[in-house]
Automatic annotation (TrEMBL):
Chain ranges of the Type I restriction modification DNA specificity domain: 7-181
PANTHER family in UniProt: TYPE I RESTRICTION ENZYME MJAVIII SPECIFICITY SUBUNIT, TYPE-1 RESTRICTION ENZYME ECOKI SPECIFICITY PROTEIN
EC number of this enzyme: 3.1.21.-
Protein name: Restriction endonuclease subunit S
Enzyme class: hydrolase
Protein keywords: DNA-binding, Endonuclease, Hydrolase, Nuclease, Restriction system
GO biological process, one term: DNA restriction-modification system
InterPro entries: Restrct_endonuc_typeI_TRD, Restrct_endonuc_typeI_TRD_sf, Type-I_RS_S_subunit
Gene3D superfamilies: DNA methylase specificity domains
Top-rank lineage group of the source organism: Bacteria
UniProt similarity note: Belongs to the type-I restriction system S methylase family.
Organism: Streptomyces acidiscabies
Keyword Nuclease among record annotations: yes
GO MF, any single term: hydrolase activity
Amino acid sequence: MSVESARLGDVASFIRGITFKPGDVVPLGVDGSVWCLRTKNVQAELDLSDVWAIGADFVKRTEQYLQAGDLLVSSANSWNLIGKCSWVPSLESDATFGGFVTALRGNPDIVDRRYLYHWFSSSRTQAVVRSFSRQTTNIANLDLQRCSELAIPLPPLAEQKRIAVVLDQVDTLRAKRREAITLLDDLAQSLFLDMFGDLFEANQNVPLSSVSYIASGITKGRKEPREELQSVPYLAVANVQDRALNLSTVKNISVSSAEIERFRLQSEDLLLTEGGDPDKLGRGTLWNEELPLCIHQNHVFRVRVMDREEVDPVYLNWVISSSYGKSYFLRTAKQTTGIASINKTQLGAFPLPVSPIEQQKEFRSRIEGVQAHQQVHRTHLATLDELFTSLQHRAFSGTLWDHEATGDAA
């Protein structure tokens, strides 16, 4: 069935935040202060782990106090984060918001606020909202006037509530799956610390270069060999995450057979990024032959264990990515403005704690068990994500209840 639409500005209003200086921030709980939320708080769920406080006299209009059911929208940020929004629940303190975020407040007599949230946070609406942003040198600004002209599908209020309930139910299931994955991450971290935490204090280490072969990868823009070349995939920094691979975008490069032999990745090679943000030092993951043939770029180190009866690659990955490993890289890395990098010599000197191989293998077995459970949850989460996207599309195109009209089963 067709659904009537309304101008967003006729059913909701954008409310701009307050203006203040960093020196105006006061400790939480100070008399006469209120919470002040900002872009950092705008996550998939409103993040209240780092909340500022500001004097209540900075709030010039009553409407600048957040209400339960508002959407807190990132309105001045990097382009990819413009329009990102969080649902505002009931808060334990009066709260306002800064100038880089905006509150979107629906008229409850016309639009159900959960319905508004699901519509505004949908990938389709978010893409349109981002396209309305105005880009300056380092930041994009949300065009609130153009956003107010957006057409929002607006079935009767009772229908909106019904749609919101369905989407909320599926969203709750998704949240539970994500929570289970996070809890298993915490369990894995606890296993590692329980089994090896004492090693970091024992000071019995060997240089990484004494137990592994360390190599840099192929350089883009090099002078190509004269012999016949073939195009093969290669891993760049963006592909290497913290104990995970991102293969959503893998580029190819033309290489010779000798270069393939030199740079080809083998099962359980440890891939480590050369540099980036300081907090990303030590970021790396194991290669498990996700592609039949793949090499690596020069900004990605390959660490290949010499003897797996001495060092288990899974153990090595966890040690290097631990706080112990990151601390070493922060101490030794070359740092410029906001960027840190390590070289092959520094990586080779990494002090690897010595642990009995039996203990390493036991850790591997237990971690693989945790990861198997995580994969089950990820598979279910992917199915729920697809269902949620489909329901959103049907809900906002007026086809969610078509099966009722035809008498089909849901």
